[in-house]
Design a protein that fits this description.
Elements (H helix, E strand, L loop, with lengths): L3 E6 L7 E6 L6 H5 L10 E7 L20 H18 L7 E6 L1 H12 L6 E5 L21 E8 L6 H13 L3 E8 L7 H10 L4
Parallel strand pairs: 2-3, 2-4, 4-5, 5-6, 6-7
Antiparallel strand pairs: 1-3
Helix pairs in contact: 2-3
């Protein structure tokens, strides 16, 4: 599977830290990269994979995973390949960060929780773990206190707050240091407050 990857920021071979930025459904790599100017990531390599046809999987993230195959597995593998490429440039896992919005946030959470380890940090702007329910047996490893920020609206048309809460519970159980903020009637968007909290909790090193 050859996923197109757009890079920005510090060149990978020169950077000490990398941020993988995962776009939402119907958007693209350039859209999510435009967020970087609001984040404290000036010394990061920025890496944004581009989903085929602008979607990581066809149906809702709450559908049974089998309905979203093979796109779901292909997308998880695409993120894995990005991580491998970053590591091949000498950047350790603990200096690899993840950020996603909506479908991209779901994919960021799903990939990292299936491969829990000490990462630099994880930012999920409106997302939760993928599936018709949270299948604990899909998830392995220990986050070793990786900072995680999850922000979402209540209600959100795509992402129910219950799934966000279940995601927080499982990731915390697996050793993540999760900061969650629920915004009343924010809508399906990214707020300035979420940007501020991501900078405070994730990109403050």
């Amino acid at each position: 599977m050859n996923t197109e990857i757009i890079t920005d920021g510090v060149p990978l071979h020169e950077a000490k830290k990398a941020l993988i930025m995962i776009h939402g459904r119907g958007a693209g790599a350039h859209d999510i990269l435009s967020l970087a100017k609001h984040l404290n990531v000036k010394d990061f390599a920025l890496v944004a994979p581009q989903a085929e046809n602008r979607t990581w999987y066809p149906y809702s993230f709450l559908a049974p995973i089998t309905q979203n195959e093979p796109s779901f597995s292909n997308s998880i593998e695409a993120i894995h390949q990005v991580v491998v490429a970053i590591q091949q440039n000498g950047i350790e896992k603990e200096n690899i960060y993840f950020l996603g919005f909506s479908q991209g946030a779901c994919l960021a959470l799903e990939f990292t929780t299936r491969n829990a380890s000490k990462y630099g940090g994880i930012v999920a702007f409106t997302g939760g773990l993928i599936g018709d329910k949270v299948y604990e047996e899909h998830y392995h490893g220990n986050f070793e206190n990786t900072p995680v920020f999850i922000g979402t609206s209540d209600p959100d048309f795509h992402v129910p707050v219950e799934r966000v809460n279940d995601t927080e519970t499982l990731m915390s159980k697996m050793g993540a240091s999760v900061t969650k903020k629920i915004y009343p009637n924010m809508g399906h968007t990214i707020s300035q407050d979420e940007i501020n909290l991501a900078n405070e909790f994730i990109f403050n090193k």
